[in-house]
Amino acid sequence: MTPKLQRALIAAAMLLVLAVLQVTIVPLISIGGVIPSFLLIGAVFVSLREGQMTGMLAAFPAGLLADAYLSALVGITPLGLTFAAFAAGFFHDEEKAQLLIRSPRAVLIVFLSALLFHLIYVFAYFQSLSIDLGSIVLKHILGASLYTMVVSAVPVLILSRRISGLKV
Amino acid sequence: MQTLIAFIRVFREYITLTVLAGLSVILVANSDSVPVQVLRSFSLVSLASLQTSSNWVSNIFASNQDAETLRDVNVSLMEEVMQLRRLRQENMELRRKIGFRDRSSWPLVPAEIVGKNLALGQNMITLDVGEEDSVAVNMPVINEEGLVGKIVATSGSFSIAMLALHRDFRATAKIKRSRIDGIIAWKEGEDLVLQNVWKTADAIPGDTVVTSEYSNIFPPEVMIGVIRTIGPGEGGLFSRIDVEPRVNFASLERVFVVRYRREPVRAALEERVYDQTETAP
Predict the structure, then answer these.
(1) Helix boundaries (H) for chain A
(2) Minimal-distance CA residue of chain B relative to A140
(3) From the candidates B13, B24, B152, which should be mutated to test the interface with A, based on the most A CB atoms within 10 A?
(4) B272/chain A closest Cα distance in angstroms
(5) What is the dihedral of CA A98, A102, A104, A109, to 10 degrees?
(6) What is the pLDDT of residues A61-117, one digit of tens each?
(7) Contact yes or no for B44 and A69 at CB 8 A
(8) Domains in chain A, please, with CATH?
(9) What Rg, from alpha-carbon coordinates, does chain B have?
(10) Pick from B28, B47, B188: which is nearest to A24 by CB?
């Protein structure tokens, strides 16, 4: 098994664990019905580190597992995650990947990917309802994306503390 | 052939994105298909027990508040029970007089909510009862305040219920006072809307909305909520009736699954007649 494949499998397993946390632990830290997406943070980090292909392939089954458990429409989360991982993958740089996931830029990329993810998710989910667009954008898109971005700062901070021992 | 391989190699990310997005769309379109239901059962079995064990964290904070609320509820329930006993006596007497058939009360299965997904409008809950407790798909879920939702998936010892605040939830309902029929659906946030009610129908804010006897899933006269506002609906023929649900969905912890099934004879008759009507030239 090549090291790249090994890393991809570890990434896929990590995202499956995050899918479990997403449906079990994350609802406990909801603020006014808004929750962060651990799955998205994981998918973006995998894309930044391993590239678009690995990011998309690892995010899809994890999104599917989360949807199958507590969602009426199975398929929306994998759809949003795949696009978010694809978009985040544009920032992937083989040589600087280790530095990137430890920098504040990673948090910003998580925010942008979260915006894309929540846009796809919310409009796919609410498309047949005549409900107030303003509240959707504020609460479900901006609110959830900001919360996800704030949470994503935690792994970035943890990783950045280990930068002294890093050799790129 | 080599050109094709080179093309795939160059655009492999885009091809993967297209394939995965296509797969997702197919899954969304077939959310009720058998393979998706199998996947649901698998995730229900594997994740529901994990979620049960993680719930102790939230329960620590909830129990003290619970005890206080329950004491207050207990006092008001005692008063209500006294009043209901008197009304029951009166009701039985009247029924006997006008020859009403006795309606059996439906057996209830008490259930605890072990998982909740109220984010992003999903509004589904996981219950700690399943097929082993004779819980089946489409059984109504209620609590002491009124209609909560209906069961949409079951496994051996767990089940998933769709709340009334779900985008796909519909129930035939009626205004208790004027007996006007309509369809209850989710509006947005924590509000419901009573649809298909004519503008000229007798409805006023404050009217109580209950489930209708025409429903195939819900027993009649289950409390849904109270009419908050009435306005002009789309198209000009119908009213837009906003209903405030009686159930507080945010603090929902325990519910009852009603082992209610439509009378088989009635179901068979309706299916037979409606099928004939549909196939008639």
Answers:
(1) 3-24, 38-50, 52-70, 76-89, 97-100, 104-126, 133-135, 144-161
(2) B120
(3) B24
(4) 31
(5) 50
(6) 999 888 888 777 788 899 999 999 999 999 998 888 888 888 889 999 999 999 999
(7) yes
(8) 3-165 (1.10.1760.20)
(9) 23
(10) B47
Please name the residue that has the structure tokens 């005549």: A130
A53 contact residues in B (CB cutoff 8 A): 12-13, 16
Tens of pLDDT, residues B88-123 = 877 776 766 565 444 446 788 888 888 877 666 678
Would you call A71 helix, strand, or coil by DSSP? coil
∠ CA B221-B224-B228, nearest 5°, is 130
Tokens 């978010």 sit on residue: A84
Nearest to B27 among A53, A74, A131 (CB): A74
Indicate the length of chain A as a whole number.
168
- Domain of B228, in residue numbers: 170-251
Structural domain total, chain B: 1
CA-wise closest residue to B187 among B208, B209, B164 = B164
B242: domain CATH number is 2.40.10.350
Q: Which amino acid is at A158?
A: I
Q: Residue B122: inside a domain, yes or no?
A: no
